[in-house]
């Protein structure tokens, strides 16, 4: 195709979304088919995800677009098109991407037609994009978190213009619905309910890279869930950086608890999870809906971050130690079979041994079923990065080790609490280490290994929990 031809194709594209992207998917199909005819094999596309559930969900959208554009999905980074969907919440996530880019460069030297793309949170940092433009010239396509829906258009430009295409938006109010997505699991799916975050916890880069809070229209959410159910999904995970802020900016406004009730009313849907809840605005209404609605899973992820009120205030978390403890107590009283999990950061600037002891105190009192523990990572541009008294690395690591030990001790004790009970488990996959066994997930998010086969995957079956193995159970099936 000569240049005027593809310039015309771009000029003739519809302006509105998602029509514009469907148009580019169709145009890409032709290019992809032409290349694959020449090669005598399909063109493969690989999407590699770093980071959280939001990114995993975005990757399903990316893969859906790529398949609609004629690519064949592949797990291999030797594919014709490779995209890294990046995370930047902690610096080690960035370092991993730079490390793996070296490897991609070596692959590209063997296959010069290979297309390397980068997207996601890390690309929203101007210094990262500068570094890529300067030192990683072999990268072909770069875009951020606000315009992932534009993959087809950007890739079309890259494949026709054949130079590095960079398109980073600073923010957006736009939510583009009705684009394809390729689900990783047939029986469960994440569902975005909102994008962005307005909380500005002082250590966190997310508000800068994912922008301001925008809630999806409840009708669109319910319609997506209904379609998923028609397609065999029994469990959905409602996704948002802080689901408790859901609906505040909608007209008319609505609460997350109301949305939860609407989703629970979808016939055929068996289970609902959600992620993540900020303790500052978890309402009594939400606790009641969780308590009274059997479809809502018995699991709540409630990030603590620190047990010290002084540090929490420095973190801009808007709750104190006592408030958090009271909330955890209230939830456990209302929903006694709930499993609580959390995120904890050690080594936030100015954290003293006394502050750290407060964190240990909270984890001993709440008794989490499990906890993700993180070393504080300085993120340029966040208020905490400029704070004095950054904690020395050896102290941070020592606290981290002590925290981890305590978290593991408690979670091992907690995981035995349901031995002997019968509970429903959603069978998620074959047990890789034990032939003839499958793994299932309990409502409280804990895994159980049971006898079974591939045909059980996606079914919810009653399981007797026979024995605790620390982080999971061994179970038997009821006759
Ligand atoms: N350093 C360490 N951990 C962080 N998190 C967010 N920002 C940072 C940071 N700068 C953690 C928080 C959050 C989780 C997703 O990542 O605990 O809940
Ligand atoms: Fe980051 Fe706080 Fe927003 Fe979570 S609530 S994404 S920790 S700023």
Termini separation: 64 Å
What do the pLDDT scores average to?
A: 95
Biggest sheet overview: 6 strands, parallel
Low-confidence residue ranges: none
Strand arrangement across the biggest beta sheet = 2-1-3-4-5-6
Write down the Rg: 24 Å
The SS-based structural class is: alpha/beta
Oligomer: single chain
Strand content: 15-25%
Shape: globular
How many strands? 19
Question: Number of helix segments?
Answer: 14
Helix content class:
25-40%
Give the cofactors and ligands: 5'-deoxyadenosine, iron/sulfur cluster
Binding site for [4Fe-4S] cluster 2: 197, 201, 204
Family: Belongs to the methylthiotransferase family. MiaB subfamily.
InterPro entries: Elp3/MiaA/NifB-like_rSAM, Methylthiotransferase, Methylthiotransferase_CS, Methylthiotransferase_N, Methylthiotransferase_N_sf, MiaB_methiolase, rSAM, rSAM_horseshoe
Protein name: tRNA-2-methylthio-N(6)-dimethylallyladenosine synthase
Task: Name a few traits of the molecule.
binds 5'-deoxyadenosine; globular; 479 residues; 6-stranded parallel beta sheet; alpha/beta; binds iron/sulfur cluster
Summarize the structure.
It is found in: Cytoplasm. The chain is of the alpha/beta class and 479 residues long.
List the helices and strands and how they pair.
Layout: H1 3-11, H2 19-39, E1 44-49, H3 53-68, E2 72-73, E3 81-86, H4 91-110, E4 115-120, H5 126-135, E5 141-143, H6 151-161, E6 165-167, E7 188-192, E8 194-195, H7 206-210, E9 214-215, H8 218-230, E10 235-239, H9 256-264, E11 271-275, H10 284-292, E12 299-301, H11 309-314, H12 321-334, E13 339-346, H13 353-366, E14 370-375, H14 393-415, E15 422-430, E16 437-442, E17 447-451, E18 460-468, E19 472-477
Parallel strand pairs: 1-2, 1-3, 3-4, 4-5, 5-6, 7-10, 10-11, 12-13, 13-14, 17-19
Antiparallel strand pairs: 8-9, 15-16, 15-18, 16-17, 18-19
Helix pairs in contact: 2-6, 9-10, 12-13, 13-14
